[in-house]
Every structure is written in structure tokens, then in C-alpha cells.
Amino acid sequence: MTVLLTAVVCGALAAALTGRIRSIADSDSRWLRSGLHVGLAAAGGAGAAGLAGTGSVGAGSVGAGSAGALPELIAFAALAVACGLLVPIDLAVHRLPDVVVVPMYPVLLATLGVTSAVTGDWGALGRAAAAALALLAFYFTLAFINPSGLGLGDVKLAGVLGLFLGWLGWQYVLIGTLAAFALNAVVALALLLSRRAGRHTGIAFGPAMITGAAVAAWLSAGG
To answer: How many CA atoms lie within 13 Å of 181's alpha carbon, on the beta-carbon side?
Structure first.
């Protein structure tokens, strides 16, 4: 029941923000009119409900673990909605707007911080913060070396996803990051082979980053 309810709430929130994302993107692209953001947010919400409370966080008492699952669910669901909005925006205009990405830092830190306070597992929050800093540094270095390949929006999103994946565990930070680059390479190769893109055609990297994080989260929940 929680899975269905969270999926419905996340999908409804994304639907309510349809006009907002068109305004943010300053575009009426088919990606923004397709309803893709609603489906992605709903699917992400279902995944958030399935993931919350299943990890190593909350290893204290059963009561503490149950109480900690609620703020964790809110964190994951909020990220699901944000990512649902970001994917079509990036596909449409190759941008990851600050107005969507940046607020996720305080949202995740606050909700995951509450989870740690309830469960007593402060190590998970420290790991999440460390992973966010690590991915910020890594992506910033890549963007500095090759600014045409990665933008600052990708760098900021990397920090957000680092918080999420770091909360799950260092192995998932690695899996999510590697999966993102692998998926992007597959997409780029497919576009080249189909002649829908050239060697210098820009490809939105945000969707691959988000998909890679989703793959890692799925694996963390036991597949």
C-alpha cells in the first residue's frame, strides 16, 4: 500500500509542476509535453517506498528503525520527483536548472539527518556527505578538463546523487557512477550508428546519471 501511495503522490506532484518545468526550461519541447516526468516521478516514488528502511541504516531498535523509515522515505521520494523533472528538461534543453537541483541539498541533508538522529546511525550521514564531496570534486575535475562534455549542472547533480548513493554505501557510489558513464557511452554509440548524432553532437548526461543511480539503488535493495 505504501508503494502505491508514494507512487501516486510523487506522480501527482510532478503533474502539478508540468507548467512550472516548461517555464523553467523556457521550452515547449515534446519531452516536456509527453508526460514523461509524471511517469518517472511515479516510478521513482514506488522505488523510494521499496527502498526506504531496507538498508543498513536503522540498525538500532525495531522502533527506531520504523521511525527512521519515514524521513528516509520523504528524502527518497523528494529526490524521485526532482529527478523525474530533471530528465525531460535535460533531454529538451541540455540543462539541469539550479532551481530544481540545488534545493535537494538541504532537503536530503535535513531528512537524512533526522533519520540518523532517530536511528543513531550518524556514520551513514557522514558517508553520504563524504560521497557528495567526492563526486562533486570528481565531476568538477572532468568538467574543467572537458567543459564541452560536462556542465556545472552535471557537477551539482553529482553532489545530490552522491548524498543519496553515499547513504546507501560506498559500493553503490561506485556502481552508480560507473553505470552512468557506461549508459551514456551506449546511448552515444547507438545515436552514432543510427546517424542521429555526430561526433560533436551534445548528449544530455543527466538522464544517464539518474539512471545509473537508480540501478545502484535497485541493487542495494536486493535487486
So the answer is: 11
Burial of 102 (0-12, 13-18, 19+ CB in 10 A): middle
Q: pTM above the 0.90 mark? A: yes
| CB-based contact 179:212 (threshold 8 Å) | yes
CA–CA gap between residue 193 and residue 198 (Å, rounded): 9
Measured in Å, how far apart are the chain's first and last C-alpha atoms? 20
pLDDT digit of tens for each residue in the chain (223 aa)?
899 999 999 999 999 999 999 999 999 899 999 999 999 999 999 999 999 976 545 443 334 456 668 999 999 999 999 999 999 999 999 999 999 999 999 999 999 999 999 999 999 999 999 999 999 999 999 999 988 889 999 999 999 999 999 999 999 999 999 999 999 999 988 888 877 766 666 789 999 999 999 999 999 988 6
**Per-residue buried b or exposed e for 45-75, using 16+ beta carbons within 10 Å of the residue's own CB:** bbbbbbbbbebebbeeeeebbebbbebbbbb
What residues have CB less than 8 Å from 218, skipping those under 6 apart?
47
Candidates 121, 17, 138; CA nearest to 69 is: 121
